[in-house]
Each structure stands twice: as structure tokens, then as C-alpha cells.
From TrEMBL:
Residues 29-48 bind DNA. It comes from Mucilaginibacter defluvii. The keyword Repeat does not apply. Residues 6-66 form the HTH tetR-type domain. The keyword Chloroplast does not apply. It holds the Pfam family TetR_N. Keywords: DNA-binding. This is TetR family transcriptional regulator. InterPro entries: DNA-bd_HTH_TetR-type_CS, Homeodomain-like_sf, HTH-type_TetR-like_transc_reg, HTH_TetR, NicS_C, Tet_transcr_reg_TetR-rel_C_sf.
Amino acid sequence: MEKEKTDKKDHILDVAERVFADVGYDAASTRMISGEAGVNMAMLNYYFGSKEGLFLAVFERKIEHFRTLINNIGNDESMNALHKLEKCIDSFIDKVVINSCFSRLMNREMWLGRRGELTDKLSDIIMNNVNEFKRIFEEGISTGLFHHDTDIELAIATIFGTKNYITNSPHVASKLLKHDVNDAEYMENELKPRIKKYLKQLLNAYLLIK
């Protein structure tokens, strides 16, 4: 019974993610989503309470998996802070999928200047992941591996910003890189390894005490 509930909730979230990405938060409705998901309104409201609750659940589900992953990396005592950071970069960049529903959803609702209580809640969800990165930077400083005057906030912005530039400005990024960044094969085989290498080399040069 519990598995059936979980499967039904995941199905609703899958449909909601696609609808929100296609038409945006304002234009989407719970009735539209329940109709496409093939469930009644009572079930949708029982699980999520409101459109805002459903929208937040879509974000939380996507981000929770990555948060657990980087939290486990951060707690791994067999690695130093640099190795943890490099592994987090690998995991983060592996999540970059151009034109996925979630990428479009993030671009539409977060990076285009929306304001208000909903955006604040979404930002808080994302900040949980940011704080996991921050914890690793602080460990590197406290252990003497990273420079004591490391600008943690801008270093984190560099990691997230590099990815966001490519995913949120694909036309410009394609011209810059002289290749279509919407090409899935190019993204997987060439661009992701290139981004990982660049970020690791950049942070290595900036962070480490020689």
C-alpha cells in the first residue's frame, strides 16, 4: 500500500514538473495537472495541499537527492576537502541536462527575476545544497589546506554560475563554444568533462596553499 502511494505521488510530481515547465507556475492549475495525471482533485490536494505545495514538492524532490549525495561526500572522512570538492563538482555537473523539464522550470521560475514568498521558499531549498558546498570550503580552510582568505561565497557562485550560464543562455553559450549545447551527445561526451576539468583546475589554483 505504501509503495502504491509513493508511486502515485511520484507520477503526479512527474506530470506537475512537465506542466509547470511548459506553461509556468502562474498559468498552470491543479485541475490541469490532476487531469493530465489521471487523478481526482481530492487526491492531489490530499498529497500536496495546494498548487504552491505541489510546486515546492517538485523542487524538493529533485534537489533532495543531490543534497543527500553531497552530504555523504562531505561526511566522508577518507577524503580531504579538495577531493570532496572535486567529487561534488563531478556530481553537480552530471546533473546538467539541457532542455530537461526541471532545467526549464528552474530557468523560468528562479533565474528570470521572480519575487515573492514562493521564490523565497525555493531559494531556501536551493540554499541547503549551497550550504553543503560551503561546509566543505570551511573544512579546507580550517585544516590549512585552503587559503585562509578564500572567498567562499564567490567560489560557490563560480561553480553554480558556470553551469547556469550554459543552461540558461544556450544560444549565447553555443556561439561561444562553437557547438550546439542542446546536443545531448556533445553535452555528455565533451562539454561535461570540459566543465569539470575547468572548475577543478580553477579552484585548485585559487584554493591551495602552494
